[in-house]
Amino acid sequence: VQLVESGGGSVQAGGSLGLTCTASGITFEDSDMGWFRQAPGKKREAVAIIQPFGDRKYYTDSFKGRFTISQDNAKSTLYLQMNSLKPEDTAVYYCAGAGYGSCMQSYEYDFWGQGTQVTVS
User: Which pLDDT band holds residue 54 (cuts at 50, 70, 90)?
Assistant: First the structure.
């Protein structure tokens, strides 16, 4: 299984960025997928998850209304659109695959991407 994130970078506060995670070796359309982030000195936290059955999406409260998770099963690709970015959104963002349980905890995922840095100034 390989998860490869892209799309990170630097942006000014109030700006937008879109992250992409391309998956291989996983039955993407049947997998719970998620975006997490980790800032320096902080725990890895859930940003948003998407569950295949019913296409349910969940967001940590602080990201609701600003971030949108989506997926393209035909391309085995997961997306995270981030709007109204704040300096406190600066972190490494990770794609996670094959989640179970609540899917809102990092230990509930079997596979991880290498992460992509997002810096908001």
Answer: low
